[in-house]
Write a structure and sequence with these properties.
The protein is built from 13 helices and nine strands. The chain is of the alpha/beta class and 301 residues long.
């Protein structure tokens, strides 16, 4: 692991206590040029993680609160007529940022949710026939409340598939929670964070992910996982080819974070739950059990 990358992880761990695995997954997702979905009840640190990540990387950051009356133009921007210039002037929406926190995304209507689709997939938006590029890197961190909570709209499968990973932070361990209660407000800590990984270094690391080696036996292992999800596991849909590519890309990024130049089965297993569970079905308890069974059942080589 490069020194700035290790410093970034160590610093994030001082902000989000006791969640080192989730912190590494979030950074892995960014290095793999993916997008991250965090599913949890309110108050567990989802916003804190996204804000701290932007501060450590020196990236522009916007938070969008998704509500039932949110319109696509509230996200993307709008053309407004300027009387002085006698022309329409585009006013960009909050999606024009390098890190975008889409907070409680499943409280918005499907129409507002779908406004993010082109942005997440193409890194651009089209408004009134004009295509506008988004800043790079472009990283969406979306949070959603459990579906059993009131006022939520399930994310469609097409949008779920746009997220490279889905994670859950969960409650902190007792010792971490005690440190949190006795310590400084996390928002005050974030204000003191400085840039640890420069823009050029981040782009270099994202490019390096593609050069991480995956041997043919390792590819065979991933392919056996894909086939297992389609033929044997207790859910309705298996991994698509795009899901398999996502698993490979995330495994390469995790190997890079771990300081290796080639992918090991341990790397695949480390990211597998976060990559495949939301692609296997909406029932999180079933998909969690399925991903655990995959790791236990599919032979490594």
């Amino acid at each position: 692991m490069s020194n700035p990358l290790k410093q970034t992880i160590d610093t994030l761990n001082t902000v989000l206590l006791g969640k080192s695995h989730q912190v590494k997954l979030a950074l892995t997702c960014l290095l793999a040029k993916g997008h991250l979905l965090i599913e949890d009840i309110p108050g567990l640190g989802k916003t804190t993680l996204s804000h701290a990540l932007a501060s450590c990387l020196g990236l522009s950051y916007n938070r969008i609160q998704f509500t039932s009356d949110l319109l696509p133009s509230d996200l993307l921007g709008i053309n407004i007529f300027d009387k002085n210039k006698a022309e329409f002037v585009f006013h960009p929406g909050p999606v024009f940022s390098q890190i975008v926190l889409a907070d409680e995304i499943n409280r918005a209507t499907p129409k507002a949710q779908s406004a993010l689709l082109e942005a997440m997939e193409e890194r651009q938006v089209t408004i009134e026939g004009v295509t506008r590029s988004l800043p790079l890197p472009f990283f969406v961190i979306a949070t959603q409340n459990p579906l059993e909570q009131s006022g939520t709209y399930p994310l469609p499968e097409s949008q779920l598939d746009r997220f490279l990973m889905r994670i859950s932070l969960g409650y902190p361990a007792p010792q971490s929670e005690k440190e949190l209660l006795l310590g400084v407000d996390r928002r005050d800590i974030i204000k003191t964070l400085s840039t640890l990984l420069t823009y050029d270094s981040l782009v270099e690391l994202q490019t390096k992910v593609d050069s991480i080696t995956a041997t043919e036996p390792l590819i065979d292992y991933i392919q056996r996982i894909i086939l297992y999800t389609r033929e044997n596991a207790p859910y309705g849909q298996g991994l698509s080819p795009r899901g398999g590519l996502a698993l490979l890309k995330a495994s390469k990024a995790w190997a890079l974070v771990e300081g290796r130049n080639s992918v090991l089965p341990d790397d695949v297993q480390a990211v597998l739950p976060s990559v495949v569970e939301h692609r296997l079905g909406s029932n999180s308890s079933i998909s969690q059990a399925a991903s655990n069974k995959i790791i236990q059942t599919v032979d490594i080589f």
